[in-house]
Structure formats: structure tokens, C-alpha cells
Amino acid sequence: MKRVCKNYDQLVAFFKECRPFVEIEPLMMTWEGWKPPRTSSQRKKVHAMMDDLGNFCGERNMKAFIKTLDFWPTEIVEFMGSEKEVPKSEANLSKEQETMVIEHLYMIGAELPGFEWNHREDAA
């Protein structure tokens, strides 16, 4: 279970909710900083940009290709007992990571002679 506590009162309320469970058996909790997820407009913009690039290049699965490039964020996953570095799912990118991906997609488009963006520029 994941729980986001944005202030002290929410954290205290969460601990009070956990108390009955702790009395039954011990719990292990981990804490990590919370970062807001990507926005809907960022998601739409990235997909529109990938579609534009894919249509121009004739690549049907542009997203898979772009995820192999060096700028795409990666994560470590455990697979069959060993750790492996894999491209991070676009759905799990943070706002900052999504912004960085958008900037790199613009750079890719700028290097393609004759390429023009078809998506709306006011998104993101």
C-alpha cells in the first residue's frame, strides 16, 4: 500500500489507522520523498511528438525506439534473481523526467531536415 501524507496532521492520522494492525503483528514501513506525477498535458504532448516523429520517419513503434536512446530515464528491476537496468515506463515518469524527454524530442525534431511538428504547441 502506498500512502501520501502531505502534512503533519495526515501523518498522525495515518499512524492512528495503523495502530490496530501493529497490535496484531509488526509492520515494516518505508518512507520516500513524494514527487508529483507527470501531468496529463505532458503525457499527451509526448505521445503526439512521438507520433509526429514516427510518421515522418516511417517508424510504426517510435516509442520503443525512443526508449532505447540515452536520454530516456531508466530504472533497476529484479529479473530472475538478478538486477537489470531497463527503460522506465512512460507512465511512471516524474514531471521533471517528462519535461526532459519533451526537450530531447524537440532536439531530435530539430535535427531532421524538413521535419515539422503537427501537434499543438500550447500543450505541456
Q: Provide the helix percentage.
A: 40-55%
The fraction of residues in strands falls at: 5-15%
Q: What is the SS-derived class?
A: mainly alpha
Which strand order does the major sheet show?
Answer: 1-2
Number of helices: 4
Task: State Rg.
Answer: 20 Å
Q: State the separation between the terminal residues, measured CA to CA.
A: 30 Å
Helix-strand string? HHHEEH
Structural description of this entry:
The protein has 124 residues and is mainly alpha-helical. The protein has a domain of 75 residues. The chain contains four helices and two strands, in the order H-H-H-E-E-H. Strands 1-2 form a two-stranded antiparallel sheet. A hairpin with a 2-residue loop joins strand 1 and strand 2. It is elongated, with a radius of gyration of 20 Å.
Key terms:
4 helices; mainly alpha; 124 residues
Strand and helix layout:
Elements: H1 8-24, H2 40-57, H3 62-66, E1 74-79, E2 82-87, H4 95-110
Antiparallel strand pairs: 1-2
Could you write a compact summary of the structure shown?
With 124 residues, this protein is mainly alpha-helical. The protein contains four helices and two strands.
